[in-house]
UniProtKB/TrEMBL annotation, chain B:
The keyword Ribosomal protein does not apply. Residues 99-288 form the ABC transmembrane type-1 domain. Its main location: membrane. CDD domains: TM_PBP2. Keywords: Cell membrane, Membrane, Transmembrane, Transmembrane helix, Transport. It comes from Candidatus Segetimicrobium genomatis. One of its GO terms (cellular component) is plasma membrane. This is ABC transporter permease. It comes from the Bacteria.
Length: 331, 301
């Protein structure tokens, strides 16, 4: 097992390096380096200043030297300085990672909490009305454009008037965006306030994962209940609940856990759209803002962060799978 | 249709004993016709394609025509059935023309992603060894990228027109197809009919194009169908963020770009374009799902 983990770690290195090369190339070969952008925004910059600045920032060096220097700094945790935010990118990301975690974790819990029971029910009552309803729902979930779903949710629950016209129901109106009411205090009021702000974005963010988890749970469960050992368990005269919970479910969950581990990073990376629509100050929104605003130092850092996250979760999924399923060979 | 070009009679015994003379594609079509959601999806897709193709004749106005005296017109008005937007464009006209762009991007991007993926998959699966290893590591790397951020970035550099958006989506969308095709080719290349073709002295390209690829066609077609919906979603998201198709060319995504800021006053502006994307992608997913059931040989009996 240890050898397997070690080997997977070793395999990660070339992929991580490949990603870093690709990322660096994408952002460095982009038209316009930081100094060019500075000149275009300030006509007073003289040609000798340009040469001096390019030398100062090391932009006059060959590309492979710049890559190695950038890699060296990044590995040591220095992600550079953001021009637009006038802050080191590490500082910039610290709060935002926390904010994104609030949303991602809530969405994940929501998705799993709905998808697993619904998927199991669907599989055990195949072709029932609720099975059809759930299957249709999964199609809706994977087909709906996230930003449109977000906008519609804001309209229905944060803008639309009839809700508030009913006396005593004004509080039903949810905030259309943002993360908390200024000056709400600490402790319980803070938490309740935060929850109100999280309702819409976490549902919107969760929908896609909810749909795909439901589909996977259903098909995984369907496959398992057809197995011989489930029939054997029934033939032994075990109670149906024991058959389902102890024999079927535990085996059906193994592939599911892998898929979930793989998709947590996807949930994190999928947040840019939701965070932008709901003005949630997280990593995803930072990515969108920095890319659109041309702050490539910040964009590069966020992209690299997300890629490393995917790598880590992929590794965890593989290791988790090997732990959970004794049939997996480690070699 | 004879799927394996090897004309040894014994090999055709494996064909399903359904109706005499009925080939694989006829069986698939018969199965597909019974799939109500898939047929419904196909019908709506056909309708959407028709309205897109004939948009210049159906649309009541020109798509760039603005009516500054009649901005934010409410729906169901006599002259503008779905109202007008912030510049006074007729929303119905914009929707019809946007459908052209969104569908074109969807089909073209899916096609290029599938073509590229098939190429990579065939090369990796057929030649195996070092080539396979290198190509699959490349696939791993692309799958690890935070793809939405990368697309956003490339959209900002090169976006604006239809061709660059298609290229960007295709360039990063081929990985699923590549893995799929590679798996199929790896499985098929060791089967008896491939050995037989090799023994008969068939060239590599003949083995690949006449014997292996036709047998891998079913999953490729399904993936292509589902990819169209995916590509439409990506284009819409990029355009929503302003790095996809640029106005005045309308796309369902860029019609939503400003809609959020007018939500308090003109909510219908945000409704229609998103509803069209939703409907289109839903239909492609229904159709793709039905197609999978219809083409999957394991379910044939």
């Amino acid at each position: 097992m240890q050898r397997y983990i070690f080997r997977r770690l070793l395999q990660m290195i070339p992929i991580a390096l490949g990603i870093s090369v690709l990322m660096f190339a994408l952002l460095t070969l982009a038209p316009g380096d930081p100094v060019d952008l500075l000149i275009s925004s300030d006509p007073r910059v003289k040609p000798e200043d340009v040469v001096r600045l390019k030398h100062l920032y090391g932009l006059d060096q060959p590309i492979h030297i710049r890559y190695l220097k950038w890699l060296g700094r990044t590995v040591q945790g220095d992600l550079g300085f953001s021009r637009t935010y006038k802050e080191p990118v590490t500082e910039l990301m610290r709060d935002r990672i926390g904010n994104s975690l609030w949303l991602t974790v809530t969405a994940f819990v929501l998705a799993v909490g709905v998808a697993v029971p619904v998927g199991i029910y669907s599989a055990l009552h195949q072709y029932s009305f609720l099975d059809y309803a759930a299957t249709t729902f999964t199609f809706f979930g994977v087909s709906i454009p996230v930003f449109w779903f977000g906008i519609m949710a804001i309209y229905l629950f944060a803008v639309w008037h009839p809700w508030t016209q009913i006396p005593g129901l004004a509080w039903v109106l949810l905030p259309p965006g943002g993360i908390s009411t200024p000056g709400v205090g600490e402790g319980l009021p803070f938490l309740l306030d935060r929850l109100r702000y999280m309702i819409l974005p976490s549902i919107v963010l969760a929908l896609l994962s909810m749909a795909s988890y439901t589909r996977y749970t259903r098909s995984s469960m369907l496959e398992v209940v057809r197995q011989d050992y489930v029939r054997t368990a029934r033939a032994k005269g075990l109670a149906e609940g024991v058959v389902i919970n102890k024999h079927a479910l535990r085996n059906a969950l193994i592939p599911l856990i892998t898929i979930m581990a793989l998709s947590i990073s996807g949930l994190f990376a999928g947040a840019p759209i939701t965070e932008t629509v709901f003005a949630w100050p997280g990593v995803g929104r930072l990515l969108v803002d920095s890319v659109i605003g041309g702050d490539y130092v910040a964009a590069q850092a966020v992209l690299m962060f997300l890629a490393v996250l995917v790598l880590i979760f992929n590794l965890m999924a593989d290791i988790g799978y090997a732990f959970l399923d004794p049939r997996i060979r480690y070699d | 249709m004879v799927r394996n070009a090897v004309t040894v009679p014994a090999l055709t015994v494996a064909a399903p004993v359904t109706q005499a003379g009925e080939g694989y594609w006829q069986i698939a079509w018969r199965r597909l016709r019974r799939h109500r959601l898939a047929m419904g999806g196909l019908l709506i897709i056909a309708l959407l394609v028709a309205t897109a193709v004939f948009a210049p004749w159906i649309a009541p106005y020109k798509f760039e025509q603005i009516d500054l005296l009649n901005r934010f017109g409410k729906p169901l008005a006599p002259r503008h059935l779905l109202g007008t937007d912030d510049l006074g464009h007729d929303v119905l006209t914009r929707l019809l023309f946007a459908g052209r762009v969104s569908l074109l991007v969807g089909f073209a991007a899916a096609l290029s992603a599938i073509a590229l993926g098939t190429l990579v998959g065939v090369v990796a699966g057929f030649y195996t060894g070092l080539v396979d290893n290198a190509l699959m590591r490349l696939t791993d790397i692309i799958l690890t990228l935070p793809i939405f951020g990368v697309l956003l970035l490339l959209g900002r550099y090169f976006g604006g027109g239809i061709a660059p958006i298609v290229a960007i989506i295709g360039l990063f969308g081929w990985t699923t197809a590549a893995r799929l095709v590679r798996g199929e080719i790896l499985r098929l290349r060791t089967q008896d009919f491939a050995d037989a073709a090799r023994a008969l002295g068939a060239s590599q390209s003949r083995i690949i194009f006449r014997h292996l690829l036709p047998n891998a066609l079913a999953p490729i077609i399904v993936a292509a169908t589902l990819d169209v919906g995916g590509a439409i979603l990506i284009e819409a998201a990029l355009s929503y963020f302003g790095v996809g198709i640029q106005p005045p060319t309308p796309s369902w995504g860029n019609m939503l770009q400003n809609a959020q800021s007018y939500m308090w006053t003109s909510p219908w502006l945000a409704f229609w374009p998103g509803a069209m994307i939703f409907l289109t992608v839903l239909c492609f997913n229904f159709f793709g799902d039905g197609l999978r059931d219809a083409l999957d040989p394991r379910l044939r009996l």
